[in-house]
Amino acid sequence: MIISQSQIDAHNEKGLAAHRKRLEFLTSEIEGVEDIINKLIDFQIAIPSWALGSGGTRFGRFSGGGEPSCLEEKLEDIGLLHRLNRSSGAISLHIPWDIPRDPQAIKNLAADLGLRFDAMNSNTFQDQEGQALSYKFGSMQHVDKAVRRQAIEHNIEVINYGIELGSKSLTVWLADGSCFPGQLNFRRAFNNTLECLQEVYKALPDDWKMFVEYKAYEPNFYSTTVGDWGQSFLYASKLGDKAYTLVDLGHHLPNANIEQIVALLLSEGKLGGFHFNDSKYGDDDLTVGSIKPYQLFLIFNELVEGMDARGMNHATDLGWMIDASHNVKDPLEDLLQSVEAIKLAYAQALLVDTKALNEAQMSNDVAAAQEILQHAFRTDLRPLVAEARLRAGGALQPLQLFRDAKVRQQLIGKRGEKTVATGL
Ligand SMILES: [Mn+2]
Origin, by domain of life (predicted)? Predict the structure, then answer.
């Protein structure tokens, strides 16, 4: 392991006095600190296997060096993150990029690193080498039944890999849609897709969930066959109890009120999972909380309120995952920042005085409602997130330790300057 527990302990020892001072102040200021810390310790965010290397854009890709080039190395990178922050205890795989050649060995490695397998992701948005039929004009929406059958078979294959590894969910994101008016019959595209999803759903084990992810546009630019939460909700409702909508923060049209979408999906029992990222314009896949931290907090506020209303377990009843891509930052540093932003927004949402907020709402006290939310958002809860990490055995300042321990230089030394992760 590149970072040892004694290195983490030494790092924590150095920062402990200053941390204690900040924590003490916060504890004197707010109520329910212990409850928030315990919830933070339980809250884990899955890391996608494709976020560990430079993602690039359609204009270019700039490798940072030392990237993982096989599934084992991807697991090791996430194990490293988890060791630092104790909040990244799960990996989300992508098939065919991460086909486990020896599932038992992969399971053992994951267990050694304290990782579990989160949602499995299928891929019918690219053609793979040796693939019989092309997805150029869609997969599940395709006019040719043989192409649709191929897409169904692929998703079933992904489920089977997931069963071997102990995953419990399948995320289906389809690039299907059209680039020009007239290209598609919308009704036919919807019904073909529904029929295919139904076939995949039939292959889903009883204790699995199926997440239908939507996206407004890109790679298709005129229509998308699962284009928004309404369409995803329609598919999930028609499929059955094991099907849910997955919300990816970057998959909306500009200025969409994502917190309201989340609230309604939760209240209908159809919110299944989350892909965290941030964006300025489109599906930018930037670091979580880097552009719109207040929106992230408002989303978490709805999540906490809505999950509590349904008696759900924050840590386990929804799928929490990062879905990001990076071209200019060290991917591991970026992921540490994303996880920190998610936990901070979660902590702030836990701080909201829900009783007072409800009273303000019931008396139409608009100014008070705003004050209550912004008070929570503007309280610096970083010491609570750090304390949760400390108690779980992680580092007080994961990013600082990552740099001090020269993790990237060590990875480059081990793996080389020019490595490219599979799928990127
Ligand atoms: Mn996504």
Answer: Bacteria
Q: What pLDDT, in 10s, does the model give residues 275-307?
A: 999 999 999 999 999 999 999 999 999 999 999
CA of 228 relative to ligand 1 center, distance in Å: 13
If pLDDT is split at 50, 70 and 90, which confidence band does 261 have?
A: very high
Question: How far is the centre of ligand 1, averaged over its atoms, from the C-alpha of 72 (Å)?
Answer: 23
**Would you state the pLDDT for residue 424?**
59
Return d(Cα 198, Cα 102) in angstroms, integer: 30
The whole-model pTM stands at 0.97
Cα–Cα nearest to 198, from 217, 175, 172, 176: 172
- Spatial contact of 223 and 177, defined as CB atoms under 8 Å apart: yes
Q: CB of 235 within 8 A of CB of 242?
A: no
CA distance linking residue 6 with residue 14, whole number of Å: 12
In the chain, the amino acid numbered 54 is S
pLDDT for residue 169: 98
Q: Measured in angstroms, how far is the CA atom of residue 16 from the centroid of ligand 1? A: 37
Q: Are 333 and 402 in contact (CB under 8 A)?
A: yes
- 265 CA from centroid of ligand 1 (Å): 17
For residues 402 and 84, the answer to whether their CB atoms sit within 8 Å is yes
Spans of all domains in the chain: 7-415
- Superfamily of domain covering 7-415: Divalent-metal-dependent TIM barrel enzymes (3.20.20.150)
pLDDT value of position 59: 85
Q: What is the pLDDT of residues 13-47, one digit of tens each?
A: 999 999 999 999 999 999 999 999 999 999 999 99
Distinct helix (H) and strand (E) counts, the chain: 15, 10
Separation of CA 9 and ligand 1 centre (Å): 35
Interval between CA 78 and ligand 1 midpoint (Å):
18
Say if residue 2's pLDDT is above 90.
no
